[in-house]
Amino acid sequence: ILPNGSASRTNLRIGDRILKVNNRDVSQATHLEAVEALLQPTNEVVLLVHHDPQPLGLK
Question: Which of 22, 20, 18, 16 is nearest to 40 (CA)?
Fold first, then answer.
């Protein structure tokens, strides 16, 4: 997650788990499948995210 990047601006954090992308379940998807879901053409990306506790060194 890059400082001032899209993910950072939406409060995504290291350790978060993306469960759905635009209502598509990616909770059991491979990394590549999740990336493909994120790259589908759309005007808006809607994510369902589970915020896990951040690793100790990143708080």
Answer: 22
Q: Tell me the pLDDT tens digit for each residue of 1-20.
A: 888 898 888 888 888 999 99
DSSP result, 1-59: --TTSHHHHTT--TT-EEEEETTEE-TT--HHHHHHHHTS--S---EEEE-PPPPGGG-
- 6-58 under CATH 2.30.42.10, yes or no: yes
Q: Is the pTM here over 0.90, yes or no?
A: no
Check: CB of residue 22 under 8 Å from CB of residue 42: yes
Asked if residue 30 lies in contact with residue 38, where contact means CB atoms within 8 angstroms, the answer is no
